[in-house]
C-alpha cells in the first residue's frame, strides 16, 4: 500500500469529523520537520516531541523515527544539554535534519500531536502533569506503571505526584494489551526486564500450563539499561571483565512483573527475581525457571507460546533446541523465546532475549504510538538485528 493511501485511511479512520480533518490537514501542511532518510517531508503528518532526547532511549527513538513514514520530530528537550545541537550530542544522528535541544520549560507544544517521554523516573510525573491535554503521551519511565499508587510509593520511595493521571494510564505491553493501548492517551511503557519476562509467562499463566507459586527469574542486562548519566558503578573499570547482581530481593521491577502476572492469573503472584549487570552495551536475557502444572510437558509450553504469538511480528519462538542469544536481537524490536526441559522432572527453563533499548524501551514505545495514532504497529520498526 502506498504512503498516500495510508494517509487517507488514517485520516478517515482517526478523524471522523470534517473539522478535525481540516485541522489535521493544516498540521500536515505546516510541517517543517524534514528528515533526510528518503521519506518525503510531506508524508510526515504527525508532529512528535521527544522529551529527554539527549539520553539513550530518546536517541533510539530518533534513530527509529528516521525511517517512519508519518512521525516527524518537531521538538526535542534535554536538561544539562539544552541549547546544544543533536549532532554535537549524538554525531550518529547528525545527518538528520532535527531541531536543537531545548529545555522543557521553553517547549511550545501547541503544534505537537504526541510526545515520547524519555525522562528519569521520579521526575516524570510532575512533568507529564503539566503537559497540555491534547497530547498523546508514551512515557518510558516507571512513573505510571504501577496501578496502585501506594505500591509505587513503597517501591520508589516517594509520594506519587499525579495519582489522577495514574488512573488514566494504560500499561503498554503491546502484544498483551493492544486493544486498550489503541484508545489510550497516556501509555506507561513497560520496563525492559518486565517486557522480557512477561512476554513468555503471560500466555502460559493464562492457559494454566505453569504453576504461579514457584517462578524464578535470573536476568541480565547490558549497561545502557542504566541510562547515559555518569555513575561510579557504571565506569568502564567497574563493569568490564566481570558481572554483578544488584537489587537482590528488592528490585523495583518485581512489583511491575507481578502486577502483569497477577492480571494473567486472576490472583496474586510472587516471583524470585534477580537482575545482573553484564559487560555489554545493549541486550537483555531473562532465564526463567518454572514448574509445570500436573501432566503438562515442555512441548505443551512450546506449542502454546507458538500459538499465542503466531500472528505477531516481534515475538518469535525459535526452532526446537535453538538457544536465544542477545546477539540475535541487537538493534531490533524482536523478542526471541525458547523453552527447554529441565533435568528436574516437572520443571522447564524458558529463555527470552530482547534489546533493552528497543523492545525493552523505544521500539515498544514506537509500537504503542503507532497503535494510538491508528497506524500499522510495525511502522519504523522492521529492522533486522545487527548480528553479531
Ligand atoms: N535505558 C534503557 O534501557 C531503558 C530505560 N527506561 C526508562 O526510560 C527513561 C529514560 O532512560 P534513558 O534514556 O536510559 O536515560 P538517560 O539518563 O540516558 O536520559 C535521560 C534524559 O532525561 C533528561 N533529564 C534528566 N533529568 C531531567 C530533568 N530533571 N528534567 C528534564 N529532563 C531531564 C536528560 O537530559 P540531559 O542529558 O541533557 O541531562 C536525558 O535527555 C528512564 O525513566 C528509564 O528508566 C526504560 C526501559 C529501558
Ligand atoms: C542495567 C540497569 O540499571 N537497568 C535498569 C532498568 C532499566 C529499565 O527498564 O528501567 P525503568 O524501569 O526505569 O524504565 C535498572 O535495573 O534499574
From TrEMBL:
GO terms for biological process: L-arginine biosynthetic process. Coiled coil: none annotated. The keyword Iron-sulfur does not apply. Pfam families: Semialdhyde_dh, Semialdhyde_dhC_1. GO terms for molecular function: N-acetyl-gamma-glutamyl-phosphate reductase activity; NAD binding; NADP+ binding. Keywords: Amino-acid biosynthesis, Arginine biosynthesis, NADP, Oxidoreductase. It catalyses: N-acetyl-L-glutamate 5-semialdehyde + phosphate + NADP(+) = N-acetyl-L-glutamyl 5-phosphate + NADPH + H(+). PANTHER family: N-ACETYL-GAMMA-GLUTAMYL-PHOSPHATE REDUCTASE, CHLOROPLASTIC-RELATED (PTHR32338:SF10), N-ACETYL-GAMMA-GLUTAMYL-PHOSPHATE REDUCTASE, CHLOROPLASTIC-RELATED-RELATED (PTHR32338). This is Probable N-acetyl-gamma-glutamyl-phosphate reductase, chloroplastic. It comes from Vicia faba. The lineage of its organism: Eukaryota, Viridiplantae, Streptophyta, Embryophyta, Tracheophyta.
Amino acid at each position: 500500500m502506498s504512503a498516500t493511501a495510508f494517509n487517507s485511511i488514517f485520516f478517515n479512520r482517526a478523524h471522523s469529523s470534517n473539522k478535525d480533518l481540516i485541522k489535521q490537514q493544516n498540521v500536515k501542511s505546516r510541517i517543517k520537520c524534514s528528515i533526510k532518510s528518503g521519506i518525503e517531508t510531506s508524508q510526515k503528518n504527525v508532529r512528535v516531541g521527544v522529551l529527554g532526547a539527549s539520553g539513550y532511549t530518546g536517541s533510539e527513538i530518533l534513530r527509529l523515527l528516521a525511517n517512519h513514514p508519518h512521525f516527524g520530530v518537531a521538538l526535542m528537550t534535554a536538561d544539562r544539554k539544552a541549547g546544544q545541537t543533536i549532532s554535537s550530542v549524538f554525531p550518529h544522528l547528525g545527518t538528520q535534519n532535527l531541531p536543537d535541544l531545548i529545555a522543557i520549560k521553553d517547549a511550545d507544544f501547541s503544534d505537537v500531536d504526541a510526545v515520547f517521554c524519555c525522562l528519569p523516573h521520579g521526575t516524570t510525573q510532575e512533568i507529564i502533569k503539566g503537559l497540555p491535554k491534547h497530547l498523546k503521551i508514551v512515557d518510558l519511565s516507571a512513573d505510571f506503571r504501577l496501578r496502585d499508587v501506594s505500591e509505587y510509593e513503597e517501591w520508589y520511595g516517594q509520594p506519587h505526584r499525579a495519582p489522577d493521571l495514574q488512573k488514566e494510564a494504560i500499561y503498554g505491553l503491546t502484544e498483551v494489551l493492544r486493544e486498550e493501548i489503541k484508545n489510550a492517551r497516556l501509555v506507561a511503557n513497560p520496563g525492559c526486564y518486565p517486557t522480557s519476562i512477561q512476554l513468555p509467562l503471560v500466555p502460559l499463566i493464562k492457559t494454566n500450563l505453569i504453576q504461579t507459586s514457584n517462578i524464578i527469574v535470573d536476568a541480565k542486562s547490558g549497561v545502557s539499561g542504566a541510562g547515559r548519566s555518569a555513575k561510579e558503578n557504571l565506569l568502564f573499570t567497574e563493569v568490564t571483565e566481570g558481572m554483578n547482581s544488584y537489587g537482590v530481593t528488592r528490585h523495583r521491577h518485581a512489583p511491575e512483573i507481578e502486577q502483569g502476572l497477577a492480571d494473567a492469573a486472576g490472583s496474586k503472584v510472587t516471583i524470585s527475581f534477580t537482575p545482573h549487570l553484564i559487560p555489554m552495551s545493549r541486550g537483555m536475557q531473562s532465564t526463567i525457571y518454572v514448574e509445570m502444572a500436573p501432566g503438562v510437558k515442555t512441548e505443551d509450553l512450546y506449542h502454546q507460546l507458538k500459538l499465542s504469538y503466531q500472528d505477531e511480528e516481534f515475538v518469535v519462538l525459535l526452532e526446537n533446541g535453538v538457544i536465544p542469544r542477545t546477539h540475535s536481537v541487537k538493534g531490533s524490536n524482536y523478542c526471541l523465546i525458547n523453552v527447554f526441559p529441565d533435568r528436574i522432572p516437572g520443571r522447564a527453563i524458558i529463555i527470552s532475549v530482547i534489546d533493552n533499548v528497543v523492545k525493552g524501551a523505544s521500539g515498544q514505545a514506537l509500537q504503542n504510538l503507532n497503535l494510538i495514532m491508528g497506524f500499522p504497529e510495525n511502522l519504523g520498526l522492521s529492522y533486522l538485528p545487527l548480528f553479531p
